[in-house]
Design brief:
It holds the Pfam family cNMP_binding. Residues 150-219 form the HTH crp-type domain. The radius of gyration is 19 Å and the shape is elongated. The chain contains 9 helices and 11 strands. It has 2 domains: 3-148, Jelly Rolls (Sandwich); 150-231, Arc Repressor Mutant, subunit A (Orthogonal Bundle). The chain is 41% helix and 22% strand. The strands form 3 sheets. A 4-stranded antiparallel sheet has the order 1-8-3-6. The two termini are 37 Å apart. By secondary structure, it is of the alpha+beta class.
């Protein structure tokens, strides 16, 4: 991949957007494009954090592994423009989570040593890294809060509101991944997801096909979820 294209992918992330162009180019020269087949691991919890991955295409499930597959805890689903393995930016320690490709994934693998050298030359970016780690912790806290305080139907409603292309009126929402993966992301089984969709029927939610959800009234759905669409970034 040309250096300019790799640098452009890096610039999509807040972590790299604050770096001078010359630094992004230097990192891009060392980055390696890697392809992962569905089910292939990008990182493994407990393994040395040797590289940071910038997802170019496809979706990746980030999770805490358990003794069995049914015991794993899904943290989030990451798509294009996101980073996997932020621990590599700290220069110490092992990966704290695992990540697996849900479909064919292409990502830039950025060597931890190159990343750490760039951060050492740009202290303001170190602050950005600290902010990214804090944001991840905040996300985990919010997830725990949602699991404790929100019903399964409300969690699904919040997910749909955040995913919808419009905030008012009717919306057709194409799910970025399968309903099975949506269920994992929301902390429920596929059967519970189906029941949750049915529970949202009174506010105008119906299944529009295999990976599509139709919402008759986005404002009613947002009200059911417990927040207004414009509040989601607060």
């Amino acid at each position: 991949m040309p250096v300019a294209d790799a640098a452009q992918i890096l610039a999509q992330s807040p972590l790299f957007a604050r770096l001078p162009q010359s630094e992004r180019d230097a990192i891009a020269r060392l980055a390696e494009v890697r392809a992962f087949a569905p089910g292939e691991r990008l990182i493994e919890r407990g393994a040395p954090a040797a590289a940071l991955y910038a997802v170019r295409s496809g979706y990746v499930k980030v999770f805490l592994p358990g003794r069995a597959a049914r015991d794993e805890h899904v943290i989030d689903i990451h798509g294009p423009g996101t980073l996997i393995g932020e621990t590599a930016a700290t220069g110490v320690g092992d990966y704290t989570v695992s990540a697996v490709a849900l479909d064919t994934v292409e990502a830039l693998a950025i060597p931890g040593e190159a990343l750490n050298a760039a951060l050492a030359r740009n202290y303001d970016v170190v602050l950005t890294v600290m902010g990214a780690v804090t944001g991840s912790l905040r996300g985990l806290l919010n997830q725990v809060t949602e699991l404790k305080m929100k019903s399964t139907a409300q969690r699904l409603a919040m997910f749909l509101v955040q995913l919808a292309p419009v905030q008012e009126g009717r919306a057709e929402i194409d799910l970025p991944y399968s309903k099975r993966v949506v269920a994992e992301k929301l902390g429920m089984t596929p059967e519970t997801l189906s029941r949750s969709i049915a529970k949202l029927a009174p506010v105008g939610v119906t299944s529009g096909g295999r990976d599509r959800i139709v919402v008759a009234d986005m404002e009613a759905l947002a009200d059911f979820a417990g927040f207004l669409p414009e509040e989601e970034d607060l």
